[in-house]
Amino acid sequence: MQIATRLALKLNSEYTFGIVLKKVFLYTNILSFISCVLGAHLIAAVQNDDGLIYFEKNVRPLLLEECSKCHGEKKQKGGLRLDLPQYIFKGGDSGTAFISGNAEHSLMIKAVKGVLSDLRMPPKTHLTSTQIEHLSNWINSGAPLPSFDEDALKQTKLSGDLTQVKQHWSFQPITATKLPQVPKQVVVQNAIDTFIYDKLQEKQLRFSGKAEPLILLRRLCLDLVGLPPTQQQIETFLSEPIDIAYPKMVDALLQSKHYGEKWAKHWLNLVRYAESTGKDENHALPYAYTYRDYVIQAFNEDLPYHQFIKEQLASDLFVNTRSEQEQLKHLPATAFNMFGPKNIAERDLNQLCMDVIDEQLDNISLTFLGLTMSCARCHDHKFDPISTKDYYALAGILKSTETLEDWTPTAIKTHHYSSMLTQTEQAHNQPLIAQIKSKLTEYKKLEDNKKRTPEQDNSFKLLADAIATLKSQLIPEKRSYTLTDFPLENATHDDREIQNCRVHVRGSYQTQKGEPIVRSVPKIFEHLYASEPVPENQSGRVQLANWIAHASNPLTAKVMVNRIWTWHFGKGLVSSTSNFGTTGTEPSHPELLDWLTKDFIDHNWSIKHLQQRIVNSATYQQSSDHREDASAIDPDRTYLWSFPPQRLDAEIIRDRMLTVSGEIDPQQGKPFFDQDPFLEKHRANGLEQKFEQSHERSIYLPVYRNKIYPMFKVFNFNSASMPNPQRENTSLSTQSLFLYNSPYVISRAQACAKRLLALQSDEPSRIKTAYMQIYQREANVKEIELLSQYHQHFSQKYPAPEKVWTLIVQSLFLTQEFLSLN
Amino acid sequence: MNRITRRSALELSAAMAAFSSQALFGQTPSKQTTHHEASAKRVIYIHIHGGLSQVESFDYKPELYKMDGKPFPGLKPEVTFSSGKLGELQAPFVKFKQYGESGAWVSELFPQLSSIVDKLTFIKSMCGSNVAHGGACLKMNTGSSTFIRPSLGAWISYALGTENTNLPAFIPIQPTMGHGGVQNFGSAFLPGVHQGTYIENKIDFIDSTHSISDIEMMNAFSEQLEQVSDSREDTTLTHAANRSLAIRMMKNSPTLFDLTQESNQTKSMYGMDHKETSPFGQKCLLARRLSESGVRFVTLTHGYWDDHGKIIAGHSNKAGQIDQPITALIKDLDQRGLLEETLVVFGTEFGRMPVAQNRNSKDWGRDHNPDGFTYWIAGGGAKAGLSYGATDPWGFYASENKVDFHDFHATILDLLGLNHEKLTFTHMGRAYRLTDVHGHVIRDLMKAPQRSQFV
Fold first, then answer.
1. Which helix (DSSP H) or strand (DSSP E) does residue B403 occupy?
2. Could you report the predicted ipTM of this complex, rounded to two decimals?
3. Which end of chain B is more exposed for a tag (fewer CB within 10 A), N or C?
4. Are the Cβ atoms of A811 and B183 closer than 8 angstroms?
5. Local confidence band at A507 (pLDDT 50, 70, 90 cut-offs)
């Protein structure tokens, strides 16, 4: 290479500019042939790490972005390819593109600077001066290129040593751990406590005492079913000694239908469940609720977690062994793959397709494995053993899976309607739809016209009537399905075309490279257990599901056990709940996590079993009170010297308010989205009314991206666009504004006040009842005293008892006690 | 059991109130937190939603008038919004003139703005990457049309915190709820406090049917209840501080959001006495008031400029609605000595094509064009009177000194004293940047390209 440069320079000085070009290229072509023969030695000589980084950072993206359309895989104008190192080096019909170490005389630089009359690149644009500078700097530094061995692309490359990465704690097989010894005088309920005690000892900490019975009951109810205890539950609980009453109550709550409503919420949040596509067009997904209901049912029925995973990845492919009714129940599960936000208006469909796949892959690996995957779209994962090859092997599985019928918005809109009807029914509707549509156009024109003449006004009314009549003749949407007309939107199926993906260099579909990568599961756990090969005529979702839900997969069960733990205690044994990779945090109690995971798998992946263990532990039943001594050592309560208090989730706060005001409707309401295909595409009108007027549990409120309810927004509900393993429940002043001023809160306080005033009793006993009703515990003497004082104060100002009690109730809503789990 | 005594609790809450910031929006007030000397403290970002035609506003292309009706000689973009083949070149329906000492070209759509061109810095070579509104808006606001990423305002809030502890650091005024919606001002993986607190006319739930004295009484009541309760938690104090701060906000806010406090002269300067200009005039005036009160990042949206058809009426009417208010905003900031430290950005998610849609009809329009369009910035250390970059002779593709959104974001951060390569947030094990792995600071746009480094 250096010889080539010198020669080129020499030639250049001897000849005049115009003549020299061709000759230089002739020579350099010969020379590049020589350098090819000499092999990699010459090239290696000019390689240096900084230069390579510079190339990757500044030059390669530039070449891909600015040049590869004409000088890429598809087109090689002038015989030149600039998308991969070996071609960049090779040059084109006019010779080598650059002279190493001499930017000024490199053809590439001349072309982009526009100094040649017949060769200006890029033809229709210009590179910025910075871009040109990058190219020049790179060439002047010797134009280092990464190794361009074809095979290198296909090989798993890791920045670290693979064996070292494999020693990472989370990738170890789950082994049985021995219980630590605990002195007799320490009260332990089960294995959990022995591990926690052991660590507390080590950190010179001790357990807190047991929480008061009613506090404990309230914690248990809010935690397991998301509702405060009822009067009856309180009475039952207090009627027996706590050691008997407590485990009984645990069992009863786990059997309650409200249990699934609470625990599905955590899962839905994790898998970015929403009822609209979000991003640009934000179309409604009217059948999304079938997935929500499926998850509620799965929790209520304690569907084994490995089964839960398989159904979400491939329930459509496991169907044959079940009755039609059974199949239907489980079909919505695969909607798991579809909730990612989508740029429906993206005109570049290849881009859209790969973006959707990327989102799906990341969701699968974050949710089940606690690993990030999307880094590998563009390069081998820097920290975890996921190679680009693994990524595209998986991408092929999803590329062969149809998740939306078509990518166009029109298809989404009409498809909801028509796919639910038989062909005859559709044939009946079609002419009606056409008529309605044409009338609607006129109707909308008139509607916009604010200065209608009386005649126009009349025809406006007539049109409205005509549309209504036509609509009434339509065969309406169905709400019950058979297997054949199940809404596609809620179920994946294998694509007609099963295909493998090729590696997309730097993640761009425009620069696909090499042989297609055969669909398969990642290779990381090859040494632990065998995976099934993907049959040629199937997408591979079954094999992927079986691989993830395998008892020997060291991550799957561990990740879920840690999630359940997190959703009880507000913090995980591993605090980075969706990152078990090498950049995640280490577990605070590794042996406990292993023990629980093994126990979980041994009990057929039963989530309820795991939760029974957790809530029956002495650790869970501790008081949540602040302790100065312990706080000084462990302010975050990582070692669980008490039950860690947590701000309740937005939905629970709403449900709690509705319960204490006596307004809650325990039944599930009707699906929100009207099936009228003529509504605007943003079919979210009436969401706020739904929130305010319907008193069903919050889980049944539609989650519409970009229209998150104001209350949920201030109480840290996320945007439902990204996987959210754990709410970030911070205290904000906007929450206080909401609690002071929102008509919604004031209405709940009013309803609660009315309910209290309806009781035939004197003020002192009403005060006690109020406390019991709102906080589900007895008031202490000081609290009663305070309540009486403020009652008196407000009564002096306002004669109406309802107003007085509304202010009192609202003050109780404002406290930490009402807003948290303690 | 050793609980926090009531006295220590009160002491603590007094202490918290003293440096109240943490509690209110979870942010710290700004100290020395920049990487280098900042020339701007705040940003007002005017988003012209729908796509402003560059060739009918600031990018004068004489060639386009000459070649009216001829086919576009360059290449058709690979991906276009409306399918089908490109229409013919279409001469702009407006005339251009040069103004000011800088000789900046402005079309007759913006007669008032033309009087202050010497205060503006034009960027004629903006380019985006997405042909649809949603993707383009997300790109403009978050740097990515593909992934869910924090918005520019959220990054700035994260980096600089709030200047006024009674207000959020990032307030979008009536943003669009379509085309990316809340993600356009979202915080993605950054802490939730940094997402934009969007307002219609004022902060949500700041008005009450209760009297302030009743609210103060409720607050006192709940605070005392927390103190006599048997259980006490370490987060109670933050919670109590937030309740008090919410009351302070309520007391301050009527003045802040009440535009009637402004003089008639100011109101009429913003066009609030005319039906056409009043709605956007009010937004601009509110933006100035918020910015003046220390809100770091205010966005204003005007829509909807998506004139695929009837562009003559469409663009003329809409320009008429904003010309006076935006001019007033710049002048007003200038008069108050605020323009020096406030960066005003005027931009759109993409421009429009120099070729026509439906050319033979009087209702002709123009399609989306992310390949070359115009922005202007003012104040905050921008080099006034400059025109930077250029498009090809027809105004289709940016051809000279191209500026993409990463470059633009890097430049805004730089003016605010932030190094876009150093402003990172670690999420799922990776350090993320607003500009991902891209972005070049365009120093040519700055009055003082080199400023002293702190870190």
1. strand B403-404
2. 0.73
3. C
4. no
5. low
